[in-house]
Design brief:
Alpha-Beta Plaits, 2 domains, 173 residues, 4 helices, alpha+beta, four-stranded antiparallel beta sheet
Length: 173
């Protein structure tokens, strides 16, 4: 019978131990996880506000990035990595056809330089005065960096001029 005296005390001790164990191993980890989730949610909301603030300040940057990519592509075309004289010669023939100039001959010179390469291309052609100016303007003001190095012009006696033009094209390595 003495065992029955301690039964309420043992029951109370077991209940207290169960309460502390439940608190320590179930409720406390759940509370910490909830608190961590709340902190992470606040942090993500702050990041979202910052992103929205940057978007409001700078607008949509994808359009600006696309514009800069187009400018970079144009710069690469203007000063290519390779001399690619064939493309330049094609541009000379297209410009001559467009401006009624007759190409008589064409000769490419040697490649000069290492990091900034250059090459001369000499063109002999016959044309009238205004179409000749338009031809030269189209080549010099074209998509590719080219300069008119030398020009010699002679009259053929009629309205045509005989010309020898030396252009220099460039490439950056």
């Amino acid at each position: 019978m003495p065992d029955k005296k301690f039964l309420p005390l043992v029951t109370l001790a077991v209940c207290v131990l169960c309460f502390f164990a439940l608190n320590e191993f179930v409720f406390e980890p759940a509370r910490r996880a909830t608190l961590n989730m709340q902190l992470e949610t606040r942090r993500l909301r702050e990041v979202e506000r910052e992103v929205l603030s940057l978007k409001a300040r700078y607008g949509d940057l994808s359009a600006a990035v696309a514009q800069k990519e187009r400018e970079l592509d144009a710069a690469r075309e203007y000063l290519p990595v390779e001399l690619d004289q064939e493309k330049f010669i094609d541009a000379l023939y297209r410009a001559a056809d467009a401006h009624r100039a007759q190409i008589i001959s064409m000769q490419a010179g040697d490649v000069e330089g290492d990091e900034l390469q250059s090459q001369t291309v000499t063109v002999k052609l016959e044309s009238q005065y205004v179409p000749l100016l338009n031809f030269v303007r189209e080549i010099v003001d074209g998509k590719r960096f080219a300069v008119l190095d030398k020009a010699s012009i002679e009259s053929t006696g009629d309205t045509f001029l005989s010309c020898e033009l030396t252009f220099r094209i460039f490439a950056a390595r």
